[in-house]
Amino acid sequence: MDGKDIFSMCTLTAINKTTEIESRSNSVRNVDDVTENERIYDEALHQANEDGHFYRYQFFAALDEYFTNSINQTLSSEQVLVRMLGMIDRRTGRRRLLKMVPVIDREHEIVKYFYKLRTEAERKMARLPG
Prior knowledge:
By secondary structure, the chain is mainly alpha-helical. 61% of the residues lie in helices and 0% in strands.
């Protein structure tokens, strides 16, 4: 957005990032220990997501969750992409946006970015105090 990559949903980029994180991990893969390998992968995927790299399937899963949940469930979802979608949902009204001020700093950078976009748009439409 505005020449700045906020996040990536390119599966190839996410694979590369996850693999890079796995290779930097101090954990050594053992072909026979599937559970440990899954743990290593899950940690790498979590870190890649924290860095803003997502697989395309994660976005589609987030959309599915978003479309089937209430706005309260959306905003409290464990999934960053679902909460991001909640920031731009019209069901997230100005009062709810104002109530989020004390806790928004603890949110993921992507969610904070979309919160900022939404609050700026609301101010321009004179719905939020400025």
